[in-house]
């Protein structure tokens, strides 16, 4: 009988560092042959481009882009045929990695993996939730502390995770890390274990091959055991949690997340918006940084990312913004594009006002 191909889902809120973590896993993959599905909440693929840059010409790593943040759900017509195509070349694939959009839950993928079209060829290995630890500690994911919409989707992403990866921790001391772990456990007591990603690096043995969702096989089929009912709001923690401790990954029973009752968060809440702003003029990196920080002050922008063209270098310049924290760096591999493009993601953010701020403070036209 053919063995199902393991699938790892990487979820996490906007700007948590999912793509950076994936790039490090590609670097450490050794002989593993990987298929990557990169899902973004926007019309252009910035993360997919970064992952391709890491993979280079390596034909053992194949990247598939899924823009618009709708992977495996609703009217997405790409996910099923893409996965079936991967199954058809199973002799050349050891593992599938799927990065969800920062505003999506992993449940649509989890449900599709159990569907008749995919259940014989794939098995969920684990779901990893990547957390921006400084934001967690700054109360930005608390209801009433930042955006309630962001707090809701962040909490739901943790709820469906097997592994939580605390990222961006290099300037945090032990007390801060213990507080972050406590906050995660309070929100998601059934998370199997937590890992620390120093410099966005994670031991690949703690990310791939965990086998946390091995199916129960019956003759030539396999299935997951569903819950009889969904737990209510006052449900307590499992009384017997010993089997969930540490890194003993074998023999763990599969668990159900009530997949059919959950949808991608941003489809339920139309307040989440993504738009692309473009400029044909050369940019100043410092002015772009200042303009994005000012846009965050004036509008509910939570994420910005893209490439800008500057007069200082012939290489592409990468912009990565999480709220007012904006990092700009030269991409040593990618040549500069003809124009600058920035993806802006926010909650009821005004495209017109953000474009006006960028245009005013950079002295160039953004539209």
From TrEMBL:
<keyword id="KW-0143">Chaperone</keyword>
<dbReference type="InterPro" id="IPR003495">
    <property type="entry name" value="CobW/HypB/UreG_nucleotide-bd"/>
</dbReference>
<dbReference type="InterPro" id="IPR011629">
    <property type="entry name" value="CobW-like_C"/>
</dbReference>
<dbReference type="Pfam" id="PF07683">
    <property type="entry name" value="CobW_C"/>
</dbReference>
<dbReference type="InterPro" id="IPR051316">
    <property type="entry name" value="Zinc-reg_GTPase_activator"/>
</dbReference>
<protein>
    <submittedName>
        <fullName>GTP-binding protein</fullName>
    </submittedName>
</protein>
<comment type="function">
    <text>Zinc chaperone that directly transfers zinc cofactor to target proteins, thereby activating them. Zinc is transferred from the CXCC motif in the GTPase domain to the zinc binding site in target proteins in a process requiring GTP hydrolysis.</text>
</comment>
<dbReference type="InterPro" id="IPR036627">
    <property type="entry name" value="CobW-likC_sf"/>
</dbReference>
<keyword id="KW-0378">Hydrolase</keyword>
<dbReference type="InterPro" id="IPR027417">
    <property type="entry name" value="P-loop_NTPase"/>
</dbReference>
<feature type="domain" description="CobW C-terminal">
    <location>
        <begin position="272"/>
        <end position="362"/>
    </location>
</feature>
<keyword id="KW-0547">Nucleotide-binding</keyword>
<comment type="similarity">
    <text>Belongs to the SIMIBI class G3E GTPase family. ZNG1 subfamily.</text>
</comment>
<dbReference type="Pfam" id="PF02492">
    <property type="entry name" value="cobW"/>
</dbReference>
């Amino acid at each position: 009988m053919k063995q199902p191909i393991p699938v790892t889902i990487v979820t996490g809120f906007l700007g948590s560092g999912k793509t950076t973590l994936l790039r490090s896993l590609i670097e450490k993959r050794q002989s593993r042959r990987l298929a990557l599905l990169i899902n973004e909440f926007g019309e252009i693929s910035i993360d997919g481009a970064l992952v391709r840059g890491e993979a280079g010409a390596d034909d053992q790593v194949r990247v598939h882009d899924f823009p618009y943040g709708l992977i495996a759900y609703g009217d997405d017509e790409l996910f099923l045929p893409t996965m079936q195509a991967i199954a058809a070349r199973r002799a050349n694939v050891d593992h599938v990695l799927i990065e969800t959009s920062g505003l999506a839950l992993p449940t649509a993928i989890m449900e599709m993996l159990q569907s008749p079209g995919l259940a014989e060829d794939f098995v969920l290995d684990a779901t990893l939730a990547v957390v921006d630890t400084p934001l967690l500690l700054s109360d930005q994911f608390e209801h009433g502390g930042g955006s309630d919409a962001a707090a809701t989707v962040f909490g739901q992403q943790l709820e469906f995770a097997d592994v939580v990866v605390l990222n961006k921790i290099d300037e945090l001391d032990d007390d801060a890390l213990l507080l972050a772990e406590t906050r995660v456990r309070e929100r998601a007591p059934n998370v199997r274990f937590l890992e620390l990603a120093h410099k966005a690096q994670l031991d690949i043995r703690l990310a791939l091959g965990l086998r946390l969702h091995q199916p129960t096989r019956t003759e030539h089929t396999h299935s997951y055991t569903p819950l009889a009912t969904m737990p209510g709001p006052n449900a307590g923690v499992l009384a017997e949690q010993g089997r969930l401790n540490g890194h003993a990954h074998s023999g763990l029973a599969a668990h159900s997340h009530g997949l059919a009752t959950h949808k991608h968060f941003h489809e339920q809440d139309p307040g989440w918006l993504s738009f692309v702003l473009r400029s044909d003029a050369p940019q100043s990196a410092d002015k772009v940084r200042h303009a994005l920080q000012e846009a965050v002050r004036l509008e509910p922008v939570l994420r910005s990312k893209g490439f800008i063209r500057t007069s200082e270098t012939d290489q592409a310049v990468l912009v990565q913004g999480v709220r007012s924290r904006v990092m700009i760096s030269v991409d040593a591999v990618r040549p500069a594009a003809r124009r600058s493009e920035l993806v802006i993601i926010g909650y009821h953010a005004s495209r017109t006002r953000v474009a006006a701020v960028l245009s005013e403070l950079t002295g160039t036209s953004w539209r």
